[in-house]
């Protein structure tokens, strides 16, 4: 059984400064609800369940510290639009449901940021999807046709406009969609865990090593104690299969990021662009680029089939070099600015690109395979799992059930280890002009 482990590479987490400590629970205890996993899904589930049921005792249990998992390691886009596969395959009614769900999640996160004054660079600036070469431009044309199908608002940018915003002539075209938000992910999830309702207990650094069903509920074992509870929400993303659920249906995939130190005032002048924007690549095998409010430039690209959920140390220098190349091609005038951090994180995909949502057993709920757009999809899944577990019924819950599916059964591990890296290499080769 593999548990999450933390390296100290993640820039978002490592630059947080001092954070609250929620020590591991040491004593055997009883709870009405235990939520396992403190990412976007688990944090939304625990808050919502506790609010729905103020007289219930609720435990959030996390293997690491909240923010060290992938919810604190991502690129910080909170996206309202369906991911590419959904846009391609879904009919208008289906896509409107996905967008409504994502937008409810964004509003929910924003309300907490405002209510608790969470200092996480939250801004409702939307995002750009940008193309480098002809391949990217073709992808953008297709993307625009998909947005037209669902009557979604967008703006097309070409030429000088792009340089004025991005500080580089590297991109030929960009499509701006206004609906999403950007944030500092580790700061956001720390802010969320620090402002839980009074009936929530938080136990960090507490990997769950087993879940057993009993006539009267569940026992949950950690290295320190045994917990008894009536209901469980499993919000463990790629690790869900390690706990014995959704086996052979979850594909753990890592992607990687690097960022610079904050640019100085002189370097900002050299840069010549604006702060606080984010680009996702027109060709999804390409590079994500962000410039943060605190003047760092972030590059994300590269994928790995993460059967071990980890970044092998020997891989990091290679990834850093790949990120460096992408950075220097975009900002040759800023080539002297070093990267301070390079990190990766494991997300869950499914073979057929389906997400899942619902009951895994009586009183055991889970959601996952969010196809790497988990800031919004994980949040809404957590909220809806909590409502489901509370017996609250409404249209939004029906809608998330409707837009979720069943991840297909994957081939045996030995075949995956051969085939998935090969497919990733092929994708990387095809997308090379956009990396
Ligand atoms: C580099 C990178 C960039 C990304 N960029 C974006 C982006 O810009 N926007 C976006 O929406 N998505 C992005 N993603 C994906 C996004 O981060 C995930 O989809 C999202 O964080 C999933 O949230 P979650 O709560 O479902 O899972 P997680 O964040 O993985 O949370 C699961 C938690 O469960 C804990 N856990 C696991 N096993 C156990 C156990 N046995 N006991 C106790 N706890 C356990 C883990 O430690 C973890 O904290 C990116 C991912 C990466 C790696």
From TrEMBL:
Single GO MF annotation: oxidoreductase activity
InterPro entries according to UniProt: FAD-dep_OxRdtase, FAD/NAD-bd_sf
Keyword Oxidoreductase: yes
Keywords: Oxidoreductase
Record's keyword annotation contains Transcription regulation: no
Domain FAD dependent oxidoreductase residue range list: 32-387
Gene Ontology cellular component annotations, sorted alphabetically: cytoplasm
Gene3D superfamilies registered for this protein in UniProt: D-Amino Acid Oxidase, subunit A, domain 2 (3.30.9.10), FAD/NAD(P)-binding domain (3.50.50.60)
Protein name: FAD-binding oxidoreductase
